[in-house]
């Protein structure tokens, strides 16, 4: 609404010939120089990044390390490299920097995991009469039964609104109600909505338990945050699944997949099996530099029920089992087989 009124005001002024709209700017335009762009990137992270204390990072020392490398004659290629080296010090997979347009390139901070320990195509060969639930983006949920009357539920992501998962879980749990156990597979799950992960976890809950607190930067000091918000997992939907559950994770279980793991690990019926998750939890809004480059910044401090931050660490499984390339080449998913063995 404010933007609309400003535009109307500009139009009126233009019509009477007294002033140009371009004169109505809120402060001076930021300079588009290598030094100004680097300064803005560093200052925005200094003001907004939520994990300096959690990761024990000295942002000023990082500035002193890289800022002298930026000079008036620094090229775009050189500037991009210096910026990515700066962001790499944060080791945060929710942070990225990209240059749009014909010279498009993208850098992602954080560790690189290949995800070659999981193949959905191989895993789904184990599933008897699989059923798919799709969205406009494609497959979102797949479920069915495994040998020994064990249920299987696979999420591609958790990016739909809770209403979608309410309908999906009603169908899934209605079909799999008579199974003696259930495998929930979130390997390679790239993210989604935390409120959706909270809802789905609630379909396995029997009571109310704290699983996460979140807070967000709201001031110039690295310790300036909003008041913490408490997240609880509690029974949701018409029916819950009360039987044993094995949750499968790997290094590419990320973001909302990890808050889902935090919630599920509060439930006595759930055992996490596989590999540690990626280790990125916070929201990451997008920002733009004067030169048009776009980046993201993690503004939150997300903590598990034990009060610890698992940013850059990930959620460890209770039982660690990994697939090898040889396993997958032979058409076997030994992680799934290990989970199945615990439930049969």
TrEMBL record:
This is Peptidase S41. It comes from the Bacteria. InterPro entries: ClpP/crotonase-like_dom_sf, Tail-specific_protease, Tricorn_C1. Residues 1-22 form the signal peptide. Transmembrane segments: none annotated. One of its GO terms (biological process) is proteolysis. Keywords: Signal. The keyword Metal-binding does not apply. GO terms for molecular function: serine-type peptidase activity. Residues 115-322 form the Tail specific protease domain. It comes from Salmonirosea aquatica. It holds the Pfam family Tricorn_C1.
């Amino acid at each position: 609404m404010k933007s609309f009124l400003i535009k109307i005001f500009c139009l009126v002024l233009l019509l009477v010939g007294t002033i140009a709209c371009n004169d109505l700017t809120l402060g001076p335009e930021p300079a588009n120089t290598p030094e100004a762009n680097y300064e803005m990137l560093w200052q925005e992270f200094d003001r907004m990044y939520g994990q300096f204390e959690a990761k024990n990072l000295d942002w000023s020392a990082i500035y002193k390390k890289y800022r002298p490398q930026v000079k008036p004659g620094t090229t775009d290629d050189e500037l991009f490299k210096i910026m990515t080296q700066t962001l790499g010090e944060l080791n945060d997979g929710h942070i990225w920097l990209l240059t749009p347009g014909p010279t498009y390139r993208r850098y992602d901070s954080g560790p690189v995991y290949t995800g070659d320990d999981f193949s959905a195509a191989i895993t789904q060969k184990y599933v008897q009469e699989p059923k798919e639930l799709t969205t406009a983006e494609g497959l979102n949920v797949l479920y069915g039964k495994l040998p020994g009357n064990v249920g299987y539920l696979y999420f591609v992501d958790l990016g739909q609104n809770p209403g979608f998962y309410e309908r999906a879980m009603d169908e899934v749990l209605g079909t799999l109600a008579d199974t003696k156990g259930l495998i929930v597979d979130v390997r390679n799950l790239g993210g989604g909505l935390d409120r959706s992960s909270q809802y789905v976890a609630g379909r396995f809950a029997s009571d109310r338990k704290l699983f996460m607190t979140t807070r967000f930067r709201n001031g110039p000091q690295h310790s300036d945050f909003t008041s913490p918000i408490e997240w609880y997992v509690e029974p949701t939907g018409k029916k819950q699944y009360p039987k044993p559950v094995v949750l499968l994770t790997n290094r590419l279980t990320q973001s909302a997949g990890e808050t889902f793991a935090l919630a599920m690990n509060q439930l006595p019926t759930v055992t996490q099996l596989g590999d540690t998750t990626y280790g990125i939890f916070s929201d990451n809004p997008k920002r733009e530099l004067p030169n048009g480059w776009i980046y993201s910044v993690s503004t939150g401090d997300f903590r598990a029920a034990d009060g610890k931050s698992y940013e850059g660490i990930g959620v460890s499984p209770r039982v660690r089992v990994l697939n090898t390339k040889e396993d997958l080449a032979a058409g076997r998913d030994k992680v799934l087989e290990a989970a199945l063995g615990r439930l049969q």
